[in-house]
Amino acid sequence: MPNTSTPNTAGAHGHGAWAEVRARDQVVRYHRSGVGRTVLILCSHNDPEPLWPELLETLGAGYRLIVPEPPVDETDLVSWLADFLEGLGVSNVIILAANRFCIPALELALLEGDQVARLVLVPQGNGRAGEAAATLVTQTRQARVPLLIVPRGQPASETVSVITGFLGETGR
Asked: Which tens digit of pLDDT belongs to each residue from 13-28?
């Protein structure tokens, strides 16, 4: 059953279209916009600190943004995410995950490294932007997934360039 909530993604919904994908026993609505390398944006409409609008506007200018409506129940988010990517028919995507999606996105990258090209985690809280950059090496497929952790408490002026620089290393 589709979720009827609307994620708070500010600039990500400026232009584009709504679509839905069916995977296994679920229907997921998502917003898509832009062109270029796919960036999957995982966030909730009720996050106390939504993603920076400046980041979403900047990313929308050079990437194809996919913003699914998140499940509202206690869904296994790793399975939900894997099914959603399978339903889209995409692999090797960039994932930008905020708050409750950070651990499931990290787990997906560790279990299914070939599905994730790069991973940006945006947990709540403060910290120094760009300090936590690493590469995950998965055990199951020996994939290498570059990882960046940017705390949401940082101002957009410090984070937008850090994140776009990290994503720019993908060789769009």
From this structure: 445 688 999 877 788 8
